[in-house]
């Protein structure tokens, strides 16, 4: 089963991410205390899988993710899909395109991570997320019963 391997919060811009054992996801904002969280943003939380990090010999937190996962391939997640992690619910918004700052970690990493830097999410329902928490995937709107089908 997919689970949370690591959690990170950015306390300051362009400084190393701070490792935490638990994080509070705030609805429509992101992680409490993280400078990347913004109300209304579609870029509130970044997830990447540990398998991709290992493939490219990167340490967790280096690509500035908030959640490092095990057993969850972000490439299999689509916009609108929900992730239940701990007591929080996140909604996938879109893949995270690697920026030029990736080349500050290792020259050529921006190109290497193209289509591999994980997914960005917004916080639909706030709650606590802890290292080791299971990650449950749901289809779009499954937590609220939204259908949108024909009458």
Write up what this structure looks like.
By secondary structure, this protein is mostly beta strands. The chain has helices at 50-55, 102-105, 109-112; strands at 3-9, 18-20, 22-26, 30-31, 45-49, 67-70, 82-85, 88-95, 119-125, 127-130, 135-138. The chain has an 8-stranded mixed sheet with strand order 2-1-6-5-9-8-7-11. A hairpin with an 8-residue loop joins strand 1 and strand 2 (18-20). The longest helix has 6 residues, at 50-55. It is globular, with a radius of gyration of 15 Å. The relative contact order is 0.25. Residues 143-151 have low confidence and may be disordered.
Characteristic terms for this protein:
disordered C terminus, globular, eight-stranded mixed sheet, mainly beta, 151 residues, M1 Pyruvate Kinase, Domain 3, 3 helices, three-stranded antiparallel sheet, 11 strands
CATH architecture: Beta Barrel
**In DSSP terms, counting alpha (H) and pi (I) runs of 4 or more, how many helices?**
3
Low-confidence stretches: 143-151
CATH level-four homologous superfamily name: PK beta-barrel domain-like
**What does the oligomeric state look like here?**
single chain
Please give the CATH class. Answer: Mainly Beta
Overall spatial form:
globular
Order of helices and strands: EEEEEHEEEHHEEE
Strand numbers in spatial order across the main sheet:
2-1-6-5-9-8-7-11
- Helix share bin: under 10%
What summary fits the major beta sheet? 8 strands, mixed
CATH topology-level fold name: M1 Pyruvate Kinase, Domain 3
Taking the alpha carbons of the first and last residues, their distance comes to 36 Å
Mean pLDDT reading? 91
Q: Kindly state the number of beta strands.
A: 11
Class computed from helices, strands and strand pairing: mainly beta
């Amino acid at each position: 089963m997919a689970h949370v391997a690591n959690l990170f919060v950015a306390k300051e811009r362009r400084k190393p991410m701070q490792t935490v054992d638990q994080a509070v996801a705030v609805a429509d904002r992101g992680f409490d205390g993280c400078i990347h969280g913004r109300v209304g943003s579609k870029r509130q939380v970044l997830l990447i899988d540990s398998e991709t990090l290992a493939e490219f010999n990167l340490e967790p937190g280096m690509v500035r993710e908030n959640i490092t996962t095990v057993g969850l391939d972000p490439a299999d997640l689509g916009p609108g899909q929900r992730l239940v992690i701990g007591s929080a619910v996140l909604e996938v918004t879109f893949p995270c395109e690697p920026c030029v700052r990736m080349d500050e970690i290792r020259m050529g990493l921006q190109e290497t991570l193209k289509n591999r830097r994980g997914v960005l999410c917004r916080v639909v329902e706030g709650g606590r997320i802890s290292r080791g928490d299971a990650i449950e995937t749901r289809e779009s709107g499954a937590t609220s019963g939204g259908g949108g089908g024909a009458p």
